[in-house]
């Protein structure tokens, strides 16, 4: 018998949905609407729920239905690391190039994108306060640390690039080792970068609170109803059909599981890449006195196979990383069981950061993020079919989903706004290679990054490994 809970969607979903428990049976038993809906959203994650919420707020009386195959928050929205961050969900150089192709200034377009992401963090926190959503939100920023000289050099370069691409100087701080350890006592830290605008959240509390807020505005949420085909004006599901004037497909890692020749959907448009997490036992006060982490910053590192973490509201450490990255033919992770090797790897990384701390792993899980071929998120909306798609957040979706939802609604309404002019609109990411090339390529990329980390740690090199540079080119990640 495993010494820890394994799967069960996530620690967040297993423990953080008590306030929403009564809605579960009602949603699962809800009837499909007979009448044509003004808006049908396919996917009950953050993108879909934000779209439904804002549509109902902007247009009281609008008929809005959300169709969810499992339960709200079943995908990445209920399994992620809880970083409400301003990180752009993609490669800035790619977005700048996309803007230039349309005759716009690339640097200005990326800076505008960054400003919208900053504003989205602010707006989400305001909505949580207004709607009374208690998602354990705390704005402590996020701290990325370097544990090798090469990683420190990358952080310095990223810091300079951030300032050149729309970040406000007052929101960023380059820290030396002592400054990092005054915040969090990470023994091997050589330095870091603090981004002040990020907030920590509990993903399940966020997604379930948002679902309740949407329902309070008149949105109908139907769970246990899998969409099998999307076509103009109609969604075919496992329980029947639903007619709609406008359809928004917000499926992310599950984008390949719905039929229909829709731009942005399909197994070669978006692939599910696994990300795994573990959470520790609750740590006592005297341990936190040693660790620090009093501002409850989101924590990550600058390794190629990077990790991300948070100090939870109940004083655990939740930490995640990639683990086994990809299942053949775009398989998805079900209820999220994690292999023992991945759990061991995450535990070892945590022990590296805090070698004097004794802890146990209480829960492990994995989820799938949606990744396009160039690792850039994109928004499409066809005014003829009135079908819109948001996809490819690649692990940076807690904030970006909100921005994507508002962008889809602007486009559906035919509005020309700052959001509809952002460079992810109608961005063509290309298509992933067919199997087995896709499986080989993804696993080779992560293997190269792992070897590069090992090399940089062993050699204490000042520069990023050529192995990592090759891996980045293979993946399409180079800026």
Explain how this protein is built.
β11 (234-237) and β12 (240-249) form a beta hairpin. The protein has 479 residues and is an alpha/beta fold. The chain has helices spanning 11-15, 23-28, 46-58, 92-101, 106-131, 149-164, 177-183, 203-216, 285-291, 340-353, 397-412, 437-459, 466-475, and strands spanning 5-6, 37-42, 64-67, 83-84, 142-146, 172-176, 191-195, 199-200, 220-222, 227-231, 234-237, 240-249, 271-280, 298-301, 308-311, 317-321, 361-371, 378-382, 387-391. α3 (46-58) packs parallel to α8 (203-216), α5 (106-131) crosses α11 (397-412) and α12 (437-459) runs antiparallel to α13. The protein contains 13 helices and 19 strands. It has a domain at 5-86 and 203-270 and 374-412: FAD/NAD(P)-binding domain (3-Layer(bba) Sandwich). The longest helix is centred in the first third of the chain and has 26 residues, at 106-131. It starts with a strand and ends with a helix.
């Amino acid at each position: 018998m495993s010494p820890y809970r394994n799967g069960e969607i996530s620690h967040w979903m297993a423990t953080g949905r008590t306030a929403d428990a009564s809605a579960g049976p009602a949603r699962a038993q809800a009837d499909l609407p007979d009448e044509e809906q003004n808006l049908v959203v396919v996917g009950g994650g953050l993108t879909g729920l934000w779209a439904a919420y804002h549509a109902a707020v902007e247009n009281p009386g609008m008929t809005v239905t959300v169709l969810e195959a499992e339960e709200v928050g079943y995908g990445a929205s209920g399994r992620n690391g809880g970083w409400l961050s301003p990180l752009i969900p993609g490669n800035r150089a790619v977005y700048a190039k996309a803007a230039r192709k349309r005759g716009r200034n690339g640097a200005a377009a990326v800076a505008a994108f960054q400003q919208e992401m900053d504003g989205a963090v602010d707006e989400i926190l305001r909505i949580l306060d207004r709607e009374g959503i208690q998602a354990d939100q705390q704005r402590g920023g996020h701290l990325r640390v370097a544990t090798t000289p090469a990683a420190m050099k990358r952080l310095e370069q990223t810091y300079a690039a951030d300032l050149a691409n729309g970040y406000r100087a007052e929101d960023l701080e380059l820290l030396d080792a002592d400054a990092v350890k005054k915040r969090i006592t990470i023994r091997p830290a050589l330095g870091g970068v603090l981004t002040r605008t990020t907030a920590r959240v509990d993903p399940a509390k966020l997604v379930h609170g948002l679902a309740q807020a949407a329902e309070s505005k008149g949105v109908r949420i139907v769970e246990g109803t899998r969409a099998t085909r999307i076509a103009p004006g109609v969604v075919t599901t496992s329980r029947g059909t639903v007619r709609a004037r406008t359809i928004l497909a917000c499926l992310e890692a599950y984008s390949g599981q719905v039929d229909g020749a829709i731009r942005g959907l399909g197994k070669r448009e978006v692939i599910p890449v696994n990300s795994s997490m573990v959470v520790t036992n609750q740590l006592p006060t005297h341990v936190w006195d040693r660790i620090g982490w009093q501002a409850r910053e989101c924590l990550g590192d600058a390794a190629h196979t990077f990790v991300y973490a948070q100090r939870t509201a109940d004083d655990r450490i939740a930490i995640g990383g990639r683990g086994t990255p990809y299942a053949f033919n775009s398989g998805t992770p079900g209820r999220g069981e994690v292999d023992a090797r991945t759990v061991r790897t995450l535990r070892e990384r945590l022990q590296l950061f805090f070698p004097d701390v004794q802890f146990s792993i209480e829960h492990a899980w994995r989820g799938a993020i949606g990744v396009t071929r160039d690792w850039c998120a994109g928004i499409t909306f066809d005014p003829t079919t009135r079908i819109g798609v948001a996809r490819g957040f690649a692990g940076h979706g807690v904030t970006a989903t909100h921005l994507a939802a508002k962008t889809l609604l602007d486009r559906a309404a035919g509005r020309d706004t700052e959001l509809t002019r952002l460079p992810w609109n109608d961005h063509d990411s290309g298509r992933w290679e067919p199997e087995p090339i896709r499986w080989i390529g993804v696993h080779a990329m992560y293997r190269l990054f792992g070897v590069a980390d090992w090399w940089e740690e062993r050699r204490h090199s000042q520069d990023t490994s050529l192995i990592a540079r090759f891996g980045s080119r293979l993946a399409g990640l180079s800026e």
